[in-house]
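ping. complex inputs:
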Amino acid sequence: MDNPTTPSPAPANIPASAGVGRRTALKAVGATLGAAAFAKALAPLTEWAPNISVSEFLQKHYKQLGREELAAILARLEAETLERYGAEVHISDVPPQDDVQFAYALNLSICIGCRKCAEACHKENNHDRPSQQSYIRVLEMQKGSLDLEKGNAHYDHPVPQKDKFYMPVQCHQCDRPPCVSVCPVEATWKEKDGIVVVDYNWCIGCRYCEAACPYHARRFNWTTPSIPKEEVTPVQAYLSNRIRPQGVMEKCTFCLHRTRNGRLPACLEACPTGARVFGNLLDPDSEIRWVLENKRVFVLKEDVGTRPRFYYFFDE
Amino acid sequence: MSPAVAPVPVPADATPTPPWTHHFKDYARFLIRSLIRATDGGWLFYGWMTLLTAIALVGANAWAVQVRDGMGVTALSDHVSWGLYIANFTFFVGVAAGAVMMVIPAYLYHDESMHDVVIVGELLAVAAISVCLFFVTVDLGRPDRFWHLLPGLGRFNFPFSMLTWDVIVLWGYLLINLHISGYLLYTRFLGLRPNPRWYVPFVFLSIVWAISIHTVTAFLYCGLGGRPFWNTALLAPRFLTSAFVSGPAFIILALQVIRRVSSFHVGDGPIRTLVNVMRITILINLLMVASEVFTEFYAGGSHTASARYLYFGLHGHNALVPWIWTSVAFTTIAAILLLRPRITEHLVLLDIACVLAFIGLWIEKGMGLIVPGFVPSTLHELVEYLPNRTEWMISAGIWAFGLMIYTLALKIALPIFTGEFTLQSSPPATRPVTGQDTAASR
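pong. complex structure:
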């Protein structure tokens, strides 16, 4: 059979060959059907893939980008926001300043649990509207106890209640951040002014950081965020409040698009009681320095060794 | 057919060539004939493979929808951000590591009867690791950015992230086992004696490596200070012990199926050895569970909230209570059955014990370990989780795909070991023709 010079096969071979043919034909039909079914099963991927441009797929890590590459990416992201959300936005890259170390403090004696900070965060950071996402969670705590187990994040009644105090929790921008250590691809890191950021275009969405954070400070984009175009906050930064893609992590950045330009975080501006204090630790005249020097401050879960930059204090 | 055929190959063989070049041709033949053999069989085989293909396709479709619409189609949330996928991943790392319980008797203790069937365990390691890698992939929010994890191309946060260690040990274990089984199969296909120099060092490496994959996987969880339920030094030893129950349990079942559907000889010796291993490991595992439960409940406090939630429910939330008690019951019954002195003579009872142990530990390492780590959350919110239809479909699809890999690998490997499938034997499809051919030419 293998040899072309062989005389034509004896008739005895024909039934066997025909058997092979039938079997092979059946196999071929099976393989074709299988391949067609496989293509059909994976068809939803072809509806998803066009959302990802080649330049987005090949985009390098934020720290590896040259000035021109970054400018092109920012322009592309602005165009995509216009195309997908109908909103004209300006996305910039705001680098950290020298001689600045940001820190936050919160006065638990005067916080009334109104959740205005959480709402301001929701708007400022272009969070998904249907899920009412926010980087801030406010816990209603039992007076006389700091046990989180006695806290309640889902209270729904007039505030403040007499026997309660209120403890808003957001990213503590730890100096030893477990979320940064566990990230397998260095998609999240601590900047030199102390803010922990995420490159939303580098994150692979494994959610290990979400498991590692002791403060429930990280959020995942379970779907593509949905925001009406008139509600989109137009002043955006690459590492902070630009609208995040589906399938990546996000977190509080102390509103770095504002604070690195000399403004205050949105949550602080929204607070009606003045419970929030934000500033530069290296500035001896700053309010944050005064609080740290004159109040008995504490950090949440000091025992886990994360060294937060978010301090709580009581007035009395 | 005629004597004229015979001389043809002779001049080709006679041309002087370096001794190793024939491997290009032979290896290609090995691959092609393996492919033919892997897609050829009786109705039972076709039926089994069609069933697995159908399940795998349902899973593939569910995954494609999940990638398109986002992981919001699962029951996962910011509170419970890992669920059924990571549970399965964790468990199947154990199954892969458990295969080493055949390798150790075969190579360290020179158990001849185990040596004859050790390929069944090595191929299980390959299939189980493939399953693990699939489960991690479907858990990624952005599978298109998978290349960010590739050393050199992406940014590999080594040695700080335990996940990068896991990538290294899992891929390493896959490659080591592919090399060992691939080398043994190819040399036997050629009809040669495998040269110990080319595989025995890798066998010993695979023993150490098997321990490492489940240790590193435990370190993923126990290294997190913010999750007290996982933050225990006992986690890695517990992972290994349960792996040495679930791996042997699966292999015992597989060996019995192989005995029925193929001509590959499986003696009672290997099954007896594996039962002896399980008898010890299942009891050590129960002891470790009891030790953890005691520590959690006797001390009390808010660090033990997850354990209280898991075993008895917390503030009216008790989704996992039926799961964990099923696990406790199954593993206890399996342990008692395995203690019967003559269990290896009552194969039905042995099979029941293996199935119970496998399911019991699947729950313990999965829903009973990953999910309660998130409930209550780090801010002590009680948000529960049970997998939804999408997650079950994707998981079933991956199980089916893993069984396909295992079936096909065994379908190629077993006839090589029985000597039915060698370079001299022809592909099964053309066997009748060639048979006559050879007969005639002689």
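The first helix of chain B runs from residue 9 to 14.
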